[in-house]
Amino acid sequence: MSEGKRVSYKNKYLEAQKELSLKEEMIKKLKEELSSLKNKFEEVKREAEASDKEAEEYLDHLKRLKAEFENYKKRMVKERQQIVNWAIEDLIKEFLPVLDDLERAIDSAKVSQDFSSLLEGIKMVYDHFRQILKKKGIEEISAEGEEFDPHLHEAIMRIESDEHPDNIVVEEMRKGYKFKDKVLRPAMVKVNKRKKTSPDSDFPEPSQGKEEGSES
């Protein structure tokens, strides 16, 4: 074999070795990138699993809060109903003596013809009843002689009179009641509206002297 051919084979071998080395280097880099991507994938996977777990924990916590809130609402409804029942029971106990007084007045009326005694008994029951209402914060609405107030009074009749000021309640037709500051029912009232004066009344009547002068 000639010297030129040996040099040519050697050069080709060196080139092949160089190309192989480059490919091995490229494969090494690809493996490193693949390993890095795999690690990133595992990290993302772990984060996703952690997020899913955290989301499940939040969901469980939310479910527990909802259940606790529902139980709280039921408990509050029950306690409020108990308070209402206690208030009603207390009110009924206070009204039982009024019922006793009324029964005694009825029994007394059956055996007695004394109307004044019956009236006195009924008045006693009425006063007792009003005392209990006042004790509970229920009071009558002042009406007759007061200026008409649409928040407290219900006008069912109007009269025209100069004997009373305008817009004044002249008669109470049915009592009104309020609980503290809340109106339970307005008082039914009759309200005055002053008569309108005629247009001629604005002019002064002629004096006697002028009338005499006109006659002369």
Can you offer a commentary on this structure?
This protein has a domain at 140-197: Roll (Nucleotide Exchange Factor Grpe, Chain A, domain 2). The chain is rod-shaped. A three-stranded antiparallel beta sheet has the order 1-4-5. Strands 2-6-3 form a three-stranded mixed beta sheet, with no helix packed on it. The chain is built from three helices and six strands; from the N terminus they run ααββββββα. The chain has helices spanning 3-111, 115-135, 208-215, and strands at residues 138-140, 153-160, 169-174, 177-179, 182-185, 187-193. By secondary structure, it is an alpha+beta fold.
Proper CATH architecture of the domain at 140-197: Roll
Under CATH at level 1, the class of the domain at 140-197 stands as: Mainly Beta
Query: Strand order, biggest sheet?
Result: 1-4-5
Radius of gyration: 51 Å
Structural class: alpha+beta
Which residues sit in consecutive blocks of at least 5 with pLDDT less than 50? Answer: 200-216
Most strands sheet: 3 strands, antiparallel
CATH topology-level name of the domain at 140-197: Nucleotide Exchange Factor Grpe, Chain A, domain 2
Helical percentage: 55-70%
Helical segment tally?
Answer: 3
In total, the number of strands is 6
* Strand residue content: 5-15%
Q: Mean pLDDT, nearest integer?
A: 82
Distance between the termini: 178 Å
* Secondary-structure element order, N to C: HHEEEEEEH
Instruction: Report the principal-axis shape.
Output: rod-shaped
CATH superfamily of the domain at 140-197: Head domain of nucleotide exchange factor GrpE
Pfam family, one: GrpE
Coiled coil: 13-82
Organism: Aerophobetes bacterium
Region (Disordered): 190-216
